[in-house]
Amino acid sequence: xxxxxxxxxxxxxxxxxxxxxxxxxxxxxxxxxxxxxxxxxxxxxxxxxxxxxxxxxxxxxxxxxxxxxxxxxxxxxxxxxxxxxxxxxxxxxxxxxxxxxxxxxxxxxxxxxxxxxxxxxxxxxxxxxxxxxxxxxxxxxxxxxxxxxxxxxxxxxxxxxxxxxxxxxxxxxxxxxxxxxxxxxxxxxxxxxxxxxxxxxxxxxxxxxxxxxxxxxxxxxxxxxxxxxxxxxxxxxxxxxxxxxxxxxxxxxxxxxxxxxxxxxxxxxxxxxxxxxxxxxxxxxxxxxxxxxxxxxxxxxxxxxxxxxxxxxxxxxxxxxxxxxxxxxxxxxxxxxxxxxxxxxxxxxxxxxxxxxxxxxxxxxxxxxxxxxxxxxxxxxxxxxxxxxxxxxxxx
Length: 396
Description:
By secondary structure, the protein is of the alpha+beta class. It has four domains: 3-113, Arc Repressor Mutant, subunit A, CATH 1.10.10; 138-188, no CATH class; 218-332, no CATH class; 341-393, Alpha-Beta Plaits (2-Layer Sandwich), CATH 3.30.70. Helices cover 46% and strands 13% of the residues. It has a four-stranded antiparallel β-sheet, with no helix packed on it.
């Protein structure tokens, strides 16, 4: 609704008497319309007072805004007062208090959170037509039919994709030649980033942090690695939702169980709120990710591609202390290099040991040597060549 329409509504309501406003505020839809046209700060104030029954001191309300925003607060208070959404009361508190209109408070609760009577009520059947249908029949018919889409509107390539969607359970088509198809709830879950279908299989009643991909065994690390890399790339087109601090604290503004599960791959979840996840990136959490086959570059790429718009203003985007530490944690696992080899020992003379050692070194298969003890290790691939050489040169 434009600003002209909003001002017209306010001008009309300003001239309505108090009794008429109270009557209007007994209807939840009317209260919702008025709420939507309020200034943003006024909406915030109403939401904070929605479930508070007693008057609130004006000094407390003034503390909800910054000192430089007093003009916005005055405008919002004036709008709420003129529309009789709240009124000033004289209490024992110095400066007075604000009290929300009880009728408006009750109606806006119903409008925002459900309850109350239907807006139109039960109109019943207003015609004598023998073929007329009841409301219950129409609701049942609509729920059975659901929303279908014509196949003829699809191109040949799209129709081929539709058949793949049928096989995956993402679409329903009675048969290949059927003229219409339906999108299944599974497709909606996948498109929306939700994992309710996975949670139901896990036996949990609510969102689980370890649904997928957490809890994957080491044998499945390649699948986890591939999936993590794909999601980190594909999610780059979405609006970023991750904020990082230099103390390795992570804030993710999301309510998606799938995104939360991805974060739990390399971070320690500390708290979950309706639209916020707080986590810490620790040495142990990163090591768990590395064990699953996720590399430091993939973790940093995921954090960069999903960075909050405020972080995109930084150069570099991620804190250097964080990127350096994650790479150092990865290097900790690279201190030991494991190679298969064969041990050669029990040389009777130094000349024999040096002969075989020099041969193995020349062909590039010598891994380790200890001349004092006449020991050496050659690679498994070069063992056969060294064995044949020693068998041919070995004194009888």
